Amino acid sequence: MDKKQEALRAIPQVDALLESAPVKALLQETSRELLAKAAREVLAQTREDILHDRPVSLSDSDLALAIQQKAQSYRLPGQQPVINASGVLLHTNLGRAPLSRRAGEAAFMAACNYLTLEYDLKTGQRGNRHDHVEGLLCELLHAPAALVVNNNAAAVLLMLTALAKGQEVVVSRGELVEIGGAFRVPEVMQQGGCLLREVGTTNKTKRADYEQAIGPDTAALLKVHTSNYQIVGFTESVPVLDLSPIAKKAGLPLLYDLGSGALLPLGDYGLSPQPGPKEALQEGADVVCFSGDKLLGGPQAGLIVGQKDLVDRMRRHPLMRALRPDKMTLAALEATLQSYLDPAMALAEIPLFEMLNTDLVTLRTRAEGLKTALEALPLVELMVMETTAQLGGGSAPGEEMPSFGLGVRHHKQSADQLARGLRNQQRPVIARVQKDWVVLDLRCVRREELPLLQDMVKAALTGKDTPHA
Ligand SMILES: *Cc1c(COP(=O)(O)O)cnc(C)c1O
Questions:
Q1: Which ranges constitute the DSSP H helices of 283-414?
Q2: 381 Cα: distance to centroid of ligand 1 (angstroms)
Q3: Residues in the ligand 1 pocket, defined by CB under 6 Å
Q4: Which of 166, 301, 304, 428 is most buried, with most CB under 10 Å away?
Q5: What pLDDT, on the 0 to 100 scale, is given for residue 245?
Q6: 369: left (phi over 0), alpha (psi -120 to 50) or beta
Q7: Of all protein residues, whose CA lies closest to atom 12 belonging to ligand 1?
Q8: What is the pLDDT of residue 397?
Q9: What's the pTM?
């Protein structure tokens, strides 16, 4: 007890500490204000440590080092890049699709300069912030009109509010989806001021169900892509191709929340074909909306394409102002869409396609390379494993593709401890825990990240964490 009191009394005052030589030396790189803030926090922590009988050092040089690290931590971004070794391509918690370099640079340019966001260089007059991107969308998807909002949830809300407020919207019971968080189709309907008219049953909805539900109060038919679940077995749903004549006959728009919206066919990667926005329009949907950061591989955005009169009603709606995307998003989206003007360019530039396209032999070779590099470490067991990667991100239910990874086990650490150690590195590594193995799935690790991954895993396995804060 006395010893504790003694230690507490030995804690220096902030002002005195700031005058000590090692701390004073830090003034060269950090302002006095930040050093004082860091010193107060370090001393408060030291006091806590003493009270809890944790070992502390009160030497000026050790305190100065702690203050320096604390001061540096103020500038570390809370949002840090990580290595995605989870095997989930569109991991919503990890920011879904990484942008192409071209898109990232466009966003950076837009962020740090004045730009022609709403300015027409030819006339010197006000322009439209959406022109560039919307023109590209119309061209790529053969769409009469296009509109971009903040995300796909916003697109669905705007679509329902602008086109069906106060009226009924007919939806299949099999498509009343919840896409994580608070996005549930029935609730978005309610927010949009529409009345949900459910038809069919959970597993089966037929053409006649839609036909019978249409009445004088019906404003639209809505189809929703069941992005994150599958109804399998005894099932039936009505495809756009069959729904379109029903909508046409009744003089109603057919709206389609496509969710992911791939612009290139995904069948080549062993995935089942995903409905694309271009095809949905061709098959007769009147308005289609989808996400910018799912299978498109762009920034968070809600992309809307369809008949001009309908899209214009959405564009003119007062809610549009609240849902409009910012300049960085528009710049990144424009650059992403430009890649798609030439599919070969999209395949080469958009990271999602690089990950999808890496063949199994390459992934296995990379896993073996990683194994060889780590093999000499003590107490470590390594195993190259066949794994299963997932699309994820509410993009395509149950869509999996074969992958390779490295299983790692440490004789003195549990799998959970090791996974935590990996997350605690300078470039955190997000891995999967599978029974008592930590699995580093290489499907979403890009080639240029491999050396860094190796370093981080090595540090975690040797207990040399490189804590980030
Ligand atoms: C992902 C998804 C949404 C939400 O899109 P965000 O871009 O995440 O807002 C809406 N509907 C469907 C069918 C989806 O898959």
A1: 308-316, 319-323, 327-340, 343-349, 351-357, 360-374
A2: 41
A3: 151-153, 156, 177, 179, 183, 224-225, 227, 257, 259-260, 291, 302, 394
A4: 304
A5: 97
A6: alpha
A7: 259
A8: 57
A9: 0.88
Read off the tokens for 380.
């470590």
* Cα distances (angstroms) measured from residue 334 to each of 35, 106, 132, 303, 456: 43, 8, 7, 12, 35
Angstrom distance (rounded) from CA 440 to CA 434: 10
Helix, strand, coil in percent for the chain, rounding step 5? 45, 15, 35
Query: d(Cα 72, Cα 245) in Å, to the nearest integer?
Result: 63
Parts of the chain with a pLDDT under 50: 468-469
> What is the biggest distance separating any 2 CA atoms in the chain, rounded to whole angstroms?
89
Summarised one tens digit per residue, pLDDT across range 229-256 is 666 677 788 899 999 999 999 999 999 9
Probe target for ligand 1 pocket from 93, 158, 183, with the most ligand atoms within 8 Å of CB: 183
Partners of 382 in the β-ladder: 408
Q: What is the model's pLDDT at position 201?
A: 84
Which ligand 1 atom is nearest residue 225's CA? 13
Q: Please state, in angstroms and rounded to a whole number, the distance separating the CA atoms of residues 61 and 20.
A: 9
**Six token digits for residue 139:** 């061209």
